[in-house]
Amino acid sequence: MADTHTGSRHTAQAEFWNSPATQVWADHHEPIDRLFSGVTEAALKIAAPHPGEHVLDIGCGGGTTVLELAARVGPDGHVVGADISQHSVARLRERIAVAGVRNAEVVLADVASYAFEAGRFDLAFSRLGVMFFGDPAAAFGNVRRAMKPDGRLALAVFRTPAENPFSVGPFEAVRNLLPTFTPPGPNDPGMFSWADAGRVHRLLQDAGYRNVSLTPLDLVVRFAAPGKPAEAAELAMMVGHVSRALAGAEPERRSAVRSALTLFFQHHDGPNGIILPGALWIVEGRA
User: Fold this and answer.
1) Is residue 26 a contact partner of residue 88, using CB atoms and an 8 Å limit?
2) Are the C-beta atoms of residues 249 and 135 closer than 8 Å to each other?
3) What's the domain range around 37?
4) H/E element, 178
């Protein structure tokens, strides 16, 4: 019997990531990339793509990691970015063309069912792109079939909400101003669905991966330069729970939230900029 709950979660995610609310991930990838620059650097270091390798970038978004991976694997390698968002795929195709990159491509793909070439990839990589899967077990079973024997898995995902004030802090500061919104549960698609190390181990091992390990990574998330709380507020409205809660909100409500977030970030302004702690797992495994 089909799992209708999993199916409905999957459909909801596909609809959300192709809605106007997520256009910002394509149109404003530069500030979002700056926000998560520490994550990108750490994930790429662990992934260690080698010249000549074939890489799958899962949930590639606006494509900065695809372009970086392509530079590292060189002309003899190849990178395939996969994303379910039409907005992000269109933007990345533009970026690949403008940059003249010949060893990268992007596909509009549901990773759980897309017909990737079997045994193609040396490395399956993702920077924050796997936490929203409606059916992660099916997705990673499918990804594993696309990997070479002993291929490497390298993923960056968030740990628990309590360990990530960069996301929870702004949300709680304006929660009273937001439309009714219940953050996803720990097993539902969302920012923190991979926080439970035991669940991640089970998910990947059931999908056939070996040598699964989770390494904690603590970092600071930089919203803006010193003295720019309004800029930080705009960025906080683009990502995370605040963004989801504001989907379709009227201009007056958005303005009130923006003002409250600006005040919140004023209290976190310092000589190193407007920063808040973040916490991730770097997940590794072998096909």
Assistant:
1) yes
2) no
3) 4-161+189-221+278-286
4) none
CA 1 to chain centre: 31
CATH number at residue 85: 3.40.50.150
Single-letter amino acid, residue 53: E
Q: What is the pLDDT of residue 1?
A: 40
DSSP state of 174: H
| Residue 37 backbone phi and psi in degrees, to 5 | -60, -35
Contacts of 160 (CB under 8 A, 6+ apart): 192, 195, 279
Low-confidence ranges of the chain (pLDDT < 50): 1-4
pLDDT at 187: 84
Which structure tokens are listed for 54?
């074939």
Residue 9 lies in a domain: yes
